[in-house]
Amino acid sequence: MTQTLSHPTDADLLGYIDKELSRDDAVAIQGHLSRCAECQQTVDSLSAATSDVELFLRNVSIPEVTAPFVARRVRPPQLAVIPKNRNVPPWYTRTSLRAALIVCGIGVATFAVTPVRGWVIDFIRNAIQSTDSQTDSQGAADPPTSGQLNTSSVAFVPEGQRFEISITQHQREGVLTIVAVEGTRARGSIAGSGAADALMVTGGGLSIQNSPESQSSYEVQIPPSIRHIIIQISNDYPVQISRDDVAREGEMIVSLSPSPQP
Amino acid sequence: MLDVTVLFYKHHEEITRYLVGLTGDADLAADAAQEAFVRLNEKPPASQEQIRAWLYRVATNFAFDTMRVATRRAEIVAERGGDFPMSQDPVPDAQLEQMERREAVRGALNLLRPKERGILLMRAQGFSYKEIAATLDVPMNSIGAVGARGLRKLSTKLSPREAQL
Lengths: 262, 165
Description:
The structure holds 2 protein chains of 2 kinds.
Chain A: H1 10-17, H2 23-35, H3 37-59, H4 69-72, H5 91-112, H6 114-135, E1 152-159, E2 162-168, E3 174-182, E4 185-186, E5 191-194, E6 198-201, E7 205-210, E8 217-221, E9 228-233, E10 239-242, H7 243-249, E11 252-256
Antiparallel strand pairs in A: 1-2, 1-11, 2-8, 3-4, 3-7, 3-9, 5-8, 6-7, 9-10
Helix pairs in contact in A: 1-3, 2-3
Chain B: H1 4-23, H2 26-42, H3 51-69, H4 73-79, H5 96-110, H6 114-124, H7 129-136, H8 143-158
Helix pairs in contact in B: 1-2, 1-3, 1-6, 2-3, 3-7, 5-8, 6-8
């Protein structure tokens, strides 16, 4: 209560009517009202106006609730249901296509990064150099560089029906496989001899188990019908050699490069 | 578990009455009341105490927001004397005076400020000052003063003689 000696404020009187005052303030107001007809008249007027509001509220007509309130809420527009298209590929095909697109996207994005692009370009350049060395019949075997420590050079010397194969710079263990090619398919047989760790004639060609310390010269018999051979050391890139090329050039040296590790 | 249906049938009518008095628009009152219960159904308050006050607060805020958008609404209501819908049931002549009194209250309430009107209506619904302050976003220590001012305006409009208070 803000005024105890003089008249209380309207807020105090309303608080008294609404029973919002403390007990002491309410007692003080009650005592003042018993002595002050003016304040008592104010209380009566405020109470009468309050009663008018209450009477008004009791008699206000309200809109009839004709349906549950939740049902009256406007529902958001529903998306149209698209009928199932029978031509749509199955989910696994769509998923695979999406995965392929993502992989391609990542590849393109990765290639756009300058360092990665440099690596790819270097890799392609090395591959081209390797191919060039195969076709360069006059060139000597390239000395291994720091990036080609595992490169092996295979020399072919034609002697009639025989090919003498000399493996140089063979700095690692591996299996030299020589496969006869006839047409587009590997077939035929190749016989060989030499002082290798192992010399095997397989169904499709010749396999030589070699080690860096072992003898690296072999004689390989290739039937005249075989026009091409494929040589490969372990899982290196396979290289195809033409008999005619070897015969024409007299000697052919092929560098075999390791395939990149997965 | 909150039973919205029970709360709806318990409070919907009184809230709608309050909103009709607050807004002077029966349709807006119905919308605001419905909005309060829809929000109660979809996202109820963390505390289930004082649900009634929470419903009043949501409905009041919705009504005030809507009224602010329709800025000319008060002018239109004032021009045509408001559209508080009153009961249309036939009444005996003995109640005619009471009906006229209600019409006068309706017109007087319509001239009050929204906050004043809200305080008077919530008082009439039995809310405490604390609940009124929280619902109408009015300082609690000003509820008495604003309410008394509203009642004085109301008395002045209802009976010019009472303006001599």
